[in-house]
Predict the 3D structure of the following.
Amino acid sequence: MSRFFASTTVTAAILLTVAAGCSGDDSRGEAAQVSATPRSCPAIADTPVQLAGGSFAMGEEDVYAEEGPVRQTTVAGFWIDPHEVTNRQFAEFVAATGYVTVAEKPVDPKQFQVPADQIPAHMLEPGSAVFTPPDFPSNNYADWWEYMPGANWKKPYGPDGADAVPNEPVVHLAWDDMIAYAKWRGGRIPTEAEWEYAASAGKRSTNVQPEEANSWQGAFPNHNAETDGFKGVAPVGCYKPNANGLYDMVGNVWEVTSDYFRPGHDPEDKVNPKGPSENAAYDPYNPGMASRTVKGGSYLCAPNYCQRYRPASRQGRDPGLGTSNVGFRLVYDSEPKA
Ligand SMILES: [Ca+2]
Ligand SMILES: [Ca+2]
């Protein structure tokens, strides 16, 4: 299977390919949040939710091969953020520390894995990968991912687009940015097992319905029917929480976990699993680096392209590059300070 059909994440190496065909694009910023159907998006508390430990059936075997085998998995208890980390929360961190994210700094040419003279100049400017939908049918990711200088968490649609909205999930972060935030906040990035346990909430993994999560209705990538109320990212908390009281675990933005990615689950690693070692990591779509595992799908997951609006869904994700459809939330090993 080609990456075109398999993935809605993106890597620096892929963007280098994309850049070769890039020209000016008047549609910049059009992926901004637009609500077709008014939805109630109540303000929800930031207070982490305590989950007792337990066992659950992790994975699925009838959708994508990388999600199996189903494995009875046990995790210890923890606390978890009730919603994706928001721009408001990330701004608190930046205000307190002066932190500058990876997407705001000059690009390290080494991440492209090609000679420096083969890298287009604009791709060495600070920036990030922005979903920029074509107005024609396509199954080629080069038609919808654009490396946009000046895109970062504060300007998620690029320098000419709207500012970050406080109660939307923060995006365009690299792994190091998320770790820095977690350390400051006193939490950590969840393991894949913790994340899936929290997302499953006692039920078997299955695709959720459009009214339950922000995904994509219609033929991706050019026809977005928006029947779930949002064309792009939604504020956190617009959809019903799961049985654990957690919002947007499935859909809205993919969420990064601490596990390195490799297709499939180790059937013997059943108690507080932490995923493969860095040396054992393998992302078939990105074999040159140790990808991290992302979970739950995003507003770009559509029935014709990415049936990953499920707790068990998983993909590898380049730790060095942010995108406009990947975020995160934290877990805590002891009760977080208010
Ligand atoms: Ca949507
Ligand atoms: Ca999510």
Observations:
- Residues 87-97 form the longest helix (11 residues).
